[in-house]
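[Structure tokenization] protein backbone as discrete codes

[Encoding] learned vocabulary of local backbone shapes

[Begin record] amino acids and matching fold tokens:

___
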Amino acid sequence: MPNQKHIEPTVNATEIQEIKKILVVCEFPDVFLEELSGLPPDRNVEYGTRFQEAYRMAPDELKELKTQLQEQLDKGFIRPSSSPCGCPALFVEKKDQGGKRLCVDYRPLNAVTVKNKYPLLHIDILFDQLAGARVFSKIDLRSGYYQIKIREEDIPKAAFSTRYGMYEYLVLSFGLTNAPAFFMYMMNSVFMNELDKFVVVEHKLYAKFSKCTFWLKEVSFLGHILSEKGVAVDPSKVECVLNWKQPETVTEIRSFLGLAGYYRRFIKDFSKTAKPMTSLTKKNAKYSWSPNCEEAFQSLKKSLTTAPVLAQPDVTKPFDVYYDASGNGLGCVLMQEGRVVAYASRQLRKHEANYPTHDLELAAVVHALKIWRHYLLGNTCHIYTDHKSLKYILTQPELNMRQRRWLELIKDYDLEIHYHPGKANVVADALSCRAHCNVIEARPTVRVLCCEIDKIELPTKQLAELYNLIIEPTIKEQIITAQKQDKGMAFIREGMDEEKRACFTLDDQGVLWFKNRIVIPKDMELRKRILDEAHMPMFTMHPGSNKMYQDLKQKFWWIHMKREIAKYVSECDVC
């Protein structure tokens, strides 16, 4: 054998040798065949393609599976497959009408599929296209996916396994990652050039009559109710929010905020309200459900149930923007002809918390312009602010770098900034406005209250379609209350000797006076109100510190009064 092994390597294709000269070949002639005669014998190792096992189904599901497979085979939607890959089939309950839809768990295939980046239309764009509509119809394609063919070379990739064998789809199947994007592409390619015409017949697309609706005054669409009045939240979709139990994990909080956030355009100050809950979702944040979280949780649920009907925007008419800026966040309201179009809000970023009041107010305006750019750019826009100095931002000569950058953005818009005293923000069911002395705002629907107001002949102020009853105390009433709560005032009253009595006096109402001037306690909010009304009157220019002091000292007195007035005037942005 060693000699034979030595001879064996000399055998090669270039030499013609007779088999008889090589003993090992002569010993095993069956190994050296000129060609294969048939299938190989059974071996311990055999090549095989592993498919993901079909999901086990209940007897009723197997019966339904067999029926649907046969129907789709008869229609030519599927065919038997020998594809090297396959995914398991399963059933999904159909919406509303019951029944089962055959789907495929294509997760392994989707994981290696290059995603189709064709954009799906934003829901707000879809709503805007319906502006001005009074009658609505919905057309649902009959098995819309099955009306789109799969390319021949890609058919084996869509194979699926069942109890009754392997099949592959020749048409678009439920479960493929790019199916929604491609379906949107097809619909846009069909309807894009004929948005106002009916072209389903021309392109041989077929509708299912039982799922179509025609000539309705209102219609359910993507979780909303559309009508001539505008857009409202679909009550059936909000029901699950009302029944939502208190979140116990961060994941449950994110899930709730995701669902509630879908309707955030209906909720005033959504970001501010949800802040206690969103703070728990931050990285490394300790989960602790506080009373503030519970209050935010219940407030969001209540806001959804009382959400108003939002008006559809008309880009041919001017828009009004009301905003609010505070240390908690920015809130904006877009209105048109006295009706709310949308709400928007966000929390302050870390660096914005250090902004001065003027910049924070301007940041709210910029936020509104950016988020509603598609409405406001090219249209007349009125910005209403309760920060009077902001009215002069467009003509202010000295600006910091941040203000200059924002001003460049503002100049792209045809807008006017109007000073509106007090907070003019619109809430879900009321417009809260400032009321002085004898001005009362009331709901016209409350007939009894309106009659009583008419009897005492108090003037009323109408604000669009929504009203709120607000009565603010006069300055004198506020001073009386502040004096009673101030410890320094009590000390002066109790310790007045003969010398002090010559300067300080008490009237019948217990109000403390210094000579002929009312004493203002150390209440910064009260003092600021007095200074604001003296320095920013409705129809005159801002007075200087000397003029302002001479005017105020006729009626009021407090320690270091002149110094505080000078400081206030020096910090006025307009001056």
Summary: The chain has a mean pLDDT of 73.
